[in-house]
Design brief:
Shape: rod-shaped
CATH class of the largest domain: Alpha Beta
Strand order of the largest sheet: 3-8-4-5-6-7
Distance between the termini: 155 Å
CATH topology of the largest domain: endopeptidase fold (from Nostoc punctiforme)
Radius of gyration: 62 Å
Largest sheet: 6 strands, antiparallel
Strand content: 5-15%
Structural class: alpha+beta
Number of strands: 8
Helix content: 55-70%
Number of helices: 5
């Protein structure tokens, strides 16, 4: 290794070309200014003896850096201001859209509430009108049933009076005639009483058509099947059991082809029937069917019974 390897160099560092050019330009500008000032003065002017202090390159660099930094800061501040303004504008626009949307939603809800209120009022009005119509119809039906029952009571009283007169007449004539004649009069009386009783039963049953069906109902405006049969027979002065299979076990069994008004029809077996009704003639019966139909008058073909009994 050379013995001069660790000796530091005494050579001055080389200045960069840009720094040399900058210094040369500054010096040239100052000298040019002095020359122009000398040329512009009078010829007899005294030589300039004032010393002009040259600005140092260090102060120029500091000023230049300060100016650049100030300019950058101003640009940054302006960009920041613009960004803030853009954000504020976007926020205002978003708030306006949300307010518009909220207003539209509020108007929609208000309109829906008004429509719902109008619908409820219309339903309430329709329900009130329907209830009023049903009440009027029920009042009319009740009046019709009351009239029919009054007429039925009058007819029954007339029948009982007629039966008593016939019985008395039959007894009187029987005292002066043979035993056969007395038997014939007794048979005629029996037929007349039975016919009047059957008419009363049929009239009562038909007067209840349109009433409601209620399980366990025994009137006056709602019935079940056995309750209606029991009440119809009670109107004619005949007591029947309350339960359908007990009613169908009463009297004597008759063929469906030999029915008479007032006969009790049953469905199921005679001793275990689950439904009963009253035959009213003309191939029809009256019965409390179910909660959907209530008390109706129907043809035997609509729901053929299993059998019939005659209690009269």
């Amino acid at each position: 290794m050379s013995h001069t390897a660790h000796i530091p160099s005494h050579r001055k560092p080389r200045r960069s070309a840009s720094k040399l050019a900058l210094r040369a330009g500054v010096a040239g500008g100052v000298l040019g200014t002095i020359a122009v000032a000398g040329a512009a003065g009078p010829a007899s002017a005294e030589p300039v003896t004032e010393t002009i202090e040259m600005p140092t390159l260090g102060s120029l660099g500091t000023d230049l850096s300060s100016a650049v930094a100030a300019s950058a800061e101003a640009s940054q501040q302006e960009a920041l201001d613009q960004s803030l303004e853009a954000q504020e504008a976007a926020a205002l626009e978003k708030a306006a859209k949300e307010a518009k949307k909220a207003k539209a939603e509020a108007e929609r809800k208000a309109e829906a509430e008004r429509a719902e209120k109008a619908r409820q009022e219309a339903e309430a009005k329709a329900e009130a009108e329907r209830a009023a119509a049903e009440a009027r119809a029920e009042a009319q039906a009740r009046a019709a049933r009351d009239s029919a029952r009054t007429q039925l009571a009058t007819t029954s009283a007339s029948s009982d009076s007629g039966s008593g007169s016939s019985s008395d007449a039959g007894s009187g004539s029987g005292s002066g005639s043979s035993d056969d004649g007395g038997s014939s009069a007794g048979s005629s009386e029996s037929t007349q009483v039975s016919s009047g009783t059957a008419a009363s039963i049929v009239a009562f049953a038909r007067a209840q058509v349109g009433d409601a069906y209620v399980t366990g109902g025994t009137g006056p405006n709602s019935w079940d099947c056995s309750g209606l049969v029991q009440a119809a027979y009670a109107a004619a002065g005949i007591d029947l059991p309350r339960i359908s299979y007990q009613q169908s076990s009463m009297g004597t069994s008759v063929s469906l082809s030999n029915l008479q008004p007032g006969d009790v029809l049953y469905w199921g077996s005679r001793s275990g029937s689950y439904h009963v009704a009253i035959y009213v003639g003309g191939g029809k019966y009256v019965g409390a069917q179910n909660s959907s139909t209530g008390v109706v008058e129907r043809s035997l073909d609509w729901d053929p019974p299993s059998g019939a009994v005659r209690i009269l």
